[in-house]
Amino acid sequence: MPAVDPITAVSDLATTIVQRIWPDKTQAEQQQLAAVLAMVQGQLQINQAEAQSSDPLQHWRGGMGWVCVAGYAWNFVLQPLLNAGTAMFGHPLNMTPLDLSELSTLTLGMLGLGGLHVAERIKGAS
């Protein structure tokens, strides 16, 4: 209900203007914290639903993990064995290895070894 006397009305208007220009930091922080908490709770529900599955390929992280495993298996096991085996039988093949720069970036990121977490901590991000 608006104030009846002009002094209170002007005071209320000034308070409203000040709050819009300089919002209360604790209220803004609480709203931001509530939004982050809701996002984390949503991700936890997704993780819980995914964890109930027994299929390792159903999860995107598991699927990407298998792609990384296949790439490393080709580079360090299959390709050298195929090249050596075909050379032993007199029909050498020159199967080229994969470029592992992008694959190792993906693997390190999935394993949390990319250093980004450390960089966030150094910069003060929580």
Automatic annotation (TrEMBL):
Protein name in UniProt: Holin (3TMs family)
